[in-house]
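Slide 14.
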Amino acid sequence: MILNCQQMFAAYQRCWELSPANTESQDAMVTVAQHLTDLWQQERKKYWVSILDQVHRTRSFRDVWYHVNSIWTKFRQQVCDPDPAGRAQELVLQWKEASSFSGLPTEHQEALNQQ
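Slide 15: predicted structure.
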């Protein structure tokens, strides 16, 4: 269900990026994002409730700590970009374009020229 929502969100986002004036895509993207956030919260809640069900006052602290560490280790694993140098170059070019003077609206360029 979450994967399906993520795919729908990505599709609406692409539509909106290709045509920013398309408010229907933007509205749909926002709706799917809100639904996806709700699904993630429900999954997190179910997950933590299942963990807390396993922890009882009679369990030793060592067992509880072992369980928490095993969970923490699962989430600490980071997904790496297969081409970090290429991704870095792509981000630099995006930043260069976004921060260039010519990329500003004309009224902002004129205001900066007057300063």
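Speaker note: The chain has five helices and no strands.
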